Fold each of these.
Amino acid sequence: MSNSDAARALPAGTGTALTGRTERLRAALAPAASLVVVCHDNPDPDTIASALGLGRIATHVGVEEVVVAHGGGLSRQENRTMVNALEIDLAAVSAVDLDAYDRVAFVDHSVPGRNNPVSADRGPDIIIDHHSTEAVTGAYVEQIPSVGATATLVGAHLRALPNDIDARLATALLFAIQTETDGFARGTTRADHRTAIYLHPEADYELIAQLRGAALTPETLSALGEAITGREVQGSCLVSGVDHPATQEVLPQAAEYLLKLEGVTTTAVYGVVEDCVHLSARTTNPALRLGRRLEEAFGDVGSAGGHDYMAGGQIPLGLIADAETGGDAVVERTVRCRLFDALGEWAGE
């Protein structure tokens, strides 16, 4: 299914294409008595809300036990506030025996071992994702990069099923769509708006406002300051680094904040966390095809990709720093050069 066909398959109501996909999802879930939904590492609102929504769908079709698990941590304040305010139970993947569950699902990611701690020999049975990646297999696979959020896809399934959505789930899904699309200003489609309209009557807008206004941690503020002072601009593109941030979650926050700089349409921020170089990039220029550019720039040494408006990647540190002496200086030089080379003519070349 092409991206344009997929977008047309998501109108409001229960058209044939939408019902067909939802029935296939039900069929993949229905034989199971237990399900573990795996969020990506350091889960954000989109993967958390999507996991919550898929769990509701599973319960609706008769799955008796549903667990939501993730790798990494919850260091970003708005993510912790969301989990606490909505009383969302999350387990560490390391504490869950995936083989003990009848079905394993990925939401907002697709590939075992990539932005998740799941081994490659335990692929997911169910995948729902709005990111573009290589072909993957499973009992049910739904990858539609043309929509703004994975929560949009999960919300569409909920809309097709004869069940009532409550305030907790509606708030989580709507907050996820809002954050993933930067308040419906980035890469938003009619499908995102239609799902939002469906969620609107039950959502708690006062709580959503509180979540969006969550305070910055001192670590995040320090990382933002470092990204600002270390920025390098070529053409309309800005690249900066954060020296060994406490968590990779500060990188997308910095990339989003730096996009406000006058004359800048694309930002990329990187930092070394443990044994990986993590990248986060944002743009207001869809013609750049940001996800594809990062994939081409770093696919030979790590994993990278994403959407036209937002992308990211991970590169094992040894593939960069071990090539020469110099440690952090090598990472700095190599990553910046690759990023500006990838951005090409938009970086003034």
Amino acid sequence: MKVAIVGAGLAGRLLAWRLVQHCRDTDQPIAVTLCDRQSRSFMGTGRIAAAMVAPFTEAVTTESTTRELGVVSWRLWQKWLPQLEAATGHKVEFNQQGTLVVAHPADLPDWQRFQQKAQADTPPEAMQYWSQSELQQQEPELSHAFRQAMYFPEEGVIDNDSFYKALDTWLDSTQEVTWHEGMECGELSSTGEATRGYLKACDEQFDYVFDCRGNDAREDQSELRSVRGEVVRVHAPEVNLTRAIRLTHPRYPLYIAPRPNHHYVIGATTLESDDDSPVTVRSALELLSALYSLNTGFSEARIQFLQAGLRPAFNDNLPRIVREEQLIRINGLFRHGYLFAPALVDEVIQSLC
């Protein structure tokens, strides 16, 4: 089987890896051409994202499909990442310590609404209530500012730096994948012969072509829109948070994703915009003010970067797999790339093989 994957972001690279691995496991021949108009070092959303795998807390404010896909992805990450580590010798940090949802006393009504919705939609074993004393025991640096928390144990955070390093090593080492960087790709129209003419620099014929271009596919998928997200990454040696944190707030709900060695990725903003210019002063002030209110130890943190990215989304903010003969489109992952991508990739592969 010969396939082309157009778009080498998170979904494209993940698909190339898992498709080759599946064909190896089932003794099927496979040749993958992976191409993208950017170089592999491009700071796309998969690289700057918080990379949270949070099916239950995300589902509180979205559809149940988010939780269903997220639970599948959570289990796949638990299975796949050890395989990637074994194959490459690179450690991929996967924090599986769960998520805490907290709120300052003045914002308790927002926290209570979140709690009511979570209790209605979350299995009892996937959610716990922590008192201030339990916070003191489990996450002591939060107990001075918060009286209670919701704890979701079956959630986590992937260190995307170590993940991309391991995945790129695997893709470079396998003979089944040919990776073209900086290749402009033509429109992926399904009219005419579905497997010809899609790669301007390749005249090969493919059994399947996968469109994983995200926002770059808007010419072919007019219903796609862009959603801007802004994040800051800091190094805070004085802060010791072990779990992902969500701070409920009426204006700027905040999430903090811990990384190894006292690094943290913080995000909040979700803006309906095609603007991919740098982070605004207002957004930066709101992010950093909320961060300081969570833990005063962040006052001496060093800012490593402030970045913005555009995420592709459909009107319902849910992903889609669209099959048009041999052309298969995977898109609309919104701000849930790490939450949706494994489930979608596995679904596509199972439908083919």
